[in-house]
Amino acid sequence: MNERAILTVTELNSQIKRVINERDEFRFIKVKGEISNFKKYSSGHIYFSIKDEKSIISCVLFASYASKVNYELKDGDEVVVLASLDVYTNRGTYQLCVYEIEPLGLGNQLVEFEKLKRKLQGEGLFDTSKKRNIIKFPNSIGIITAINGAAIKDLLFNIQRRYPLVNIYIFPSAVQGESAPKELLKAFNKAQEYPLDTLIIGRGGGAKEDLSAFNDEKLVRAIANSKMPVIAAVGHEIDFTLVDYVADKRVSTPTAAAEIATPDQEELLEYFEQVEDRLKSILRQNISKLIEEINDLNEELDDIICDNIEQKKVQIDSLSRHLKALSPKKILERGYSISTNISGKVIKSVKDANIGDEIITTVSDGNIISVIKGGKKRG
Fold it and tell me: What architecture is the 112-261 domain classified under in CATH?
């Protein structure tokens, strides 16, 4: 064995680290690969690996650099990292210290999606306070989707099954491809000219790249100013489009859109039965209340009539006593009398009687018949 300096493991790893750190070709290199073993710690540091078909290498993205990443990283993402090769001397392994990380392919779209999302969210387009309730019993519903797709068949079937009374307006549009954003916007603007209670916009399921038309900024801004509530039914469960965020209601399938846009006719019949029962109950209560009020009024009227009768009796008794006091009979009882000739004419003056006339004098207890022998005028 040749005489050479004996190195400790730490010394060897340190020398390797120094050699690598001094080589420019290992500094600020770009490496592409697929993320695996992704882990993010509470400290903010992110540890992961990138791999290709044959090899894999460990990576670390420290918190100060991780905070600048404006999209969500996860296993399976194809990325390009800007990094420097470094040696972790404690384990004798090498790794990439990452400064920047960018997605490849769809990842670039995701970055743009996140940027636009933050922009529109900052303007308040997604605020929950702006969300409107879906009308429970609509007169008319509009649908924006592909005319030959599965979504339109699904929507028409379920809307007509649930609520056949509603009018349906269809605004055809491509839902993927280069022309889709413009066609969707054109169809949406056309729908605004109709007296719709609810507008459904969407499509069936598809790959992420097929949904990009529903992230168009002009379309999202138009929906934010819609005259009627909008239901987004883009047909995907996990991933959201910007149309989902701006719509008044988001559902995952066209079937769910039909269900939320309409009442079920069976539920409607049940509702009407409940309303009828409530009306009958209210009517019975009102009738009972009216009967009770009528009875109270009858009792009150009886009391009023009785009071009036008693008052009239008192008045009649008073008048009766007064009349009795004024009656001739009462006068006669006080010692007065009334004289009349044979014809019944009251003799008021001596001129009314002649000597020899027969007169009748009425006193309190009877009549006295006498003959006039003479008379004298007073005073």
Answer: 3-Layer(aba) Sandwich (3.40)
